[in-house]
Design goal:
Layout (H helix, E strand, L loop, with lengths): L8 H10 L5 H29 L2 H14 L1 H10 L3 H16 L8 H4 L9 H7 L7 E4 L3 E4 H13 L8 H21 L1 H10 L3 H17 L54
Antiparallel strand pairs: 1-2
Helix pairs in contact: 2-9, 3-9, 4-5, 7-8
Length: 271
């Protein structure tokens, strides 16, 4: 599908200029490193995961990982003064953890408790902190100084990080690896499309990241369709598990340990 048919070329140019990227040379080098790692390791593992794992199982994995994110989202809802959304987050977590069998299923959505995402990078933005320079970190992907700081703080909000002992450490590592594989599998077609159709994937990702973060900070009030156009990027066939659009290639702050693009982020939900 074509992303952002509604976006004019001047709008794209403005968005690209608006992103502060004083370390572009270094960032492009790191992006190249990331692409090498991805094509050698992450992508093959993700394709293998898809080949051997039925779609319902992959969907359950995505739901489970999203549910683990609930306490972090709740904390940031409260810090932003979004108490109604905090209540929804708490209710979703309770319903999906119990009725949904530790989050493998998502009955909360059927009960009208819609999912949204928050992170401390967004909280800092709500408090008036600027984004700072753009960063690209291999494996973790696009970010900026504010959002990188936010990711560190979100680790404090995560109850799994409070646990101590060998078993807790093993659980954290397992969650991180599983998240990375799950996210990368969801965006296989999207990444293929960007590589094939974008003249400058680095610049396209940088611009899209900035626009998506703006939308996330505004709780979806900014149009996430205002993205650089990647012609004929196919919709991932596994949209039921949380993928389904090229914006999934960029982090939506599903900040659960290691992910293909920083957490985030399992996808396409910027609100």
């Amino acid at each position: 599908m074509a992303l952002a048919a509604c976006l004019s070329a001047p709008s794209i140019a403005f968005a690209q200029e608006a992103v502060s990227d004083p370390w572009e040379g270094v960032n492009r080098g790191l992006f190249a490193v990331h692409e090498t790692i991805d094509q050698a390791v992450l992508e093959p593992v993700a394709r293998g995961y898809r080949a051997v794992t039925p779609r319902p199982v992959r969907s359950g994995v995505t739901n489970f990982l999203r549910n683990l994110r609930g306490p972090v989202i709740f904390a940031n809802d409260v810090l932003q003064g979004e108490f109604s959304r905090a209540g929804t987050t708490a209710a979703r977590f309770g319903v999906n953890t119990t009725v949904g069998i530790v989050g493998v299923f998502d009955p909360a959505t059927n009960f009208g408790l819609e999912r949204h995402d928050e992170d401390f990078g967004q909280t800092l933005a709500v408090w008036g902190v600027g984004s700072g320079p753009y960063l690209f970190v291999p494996i973790f992907g696009p970010s900026n100084v504010r959002d990188t700081t936010g990711r560190v703080v979100d680790m404090v909000f995560d109850p799994l990080n409070w646990a101590r002992g060998e078993e807790a450490e093993t659980a954290r590592i397992a969650r991180g690896v599983l998240t990375g594989v799950s996210v990368r599998e969801q965006v296989l077609e999207t990444v293929d499309g960007i590589r094939a159709n974008s003249v400058d994937p680095y610049a396209s990702i940088r611009t899209s990241y900035s626009l998506l973060r703006e939308s996330a900070i505004e709780n979806g009030r900014t149009d996430v369709q205002d993205l650089p156009e990647f012609d004929d990027i196919p919709e991932t066939p596994d949209s039921s598990s949380g993928g389904g659009s090229a914006v999934s290639y960029l982090p939506q702050q599903e900040g659960i340990g290691l992910t293909y693009f920083a957490l985030d982020y399992v996808t396409g939900e910027a609100s």
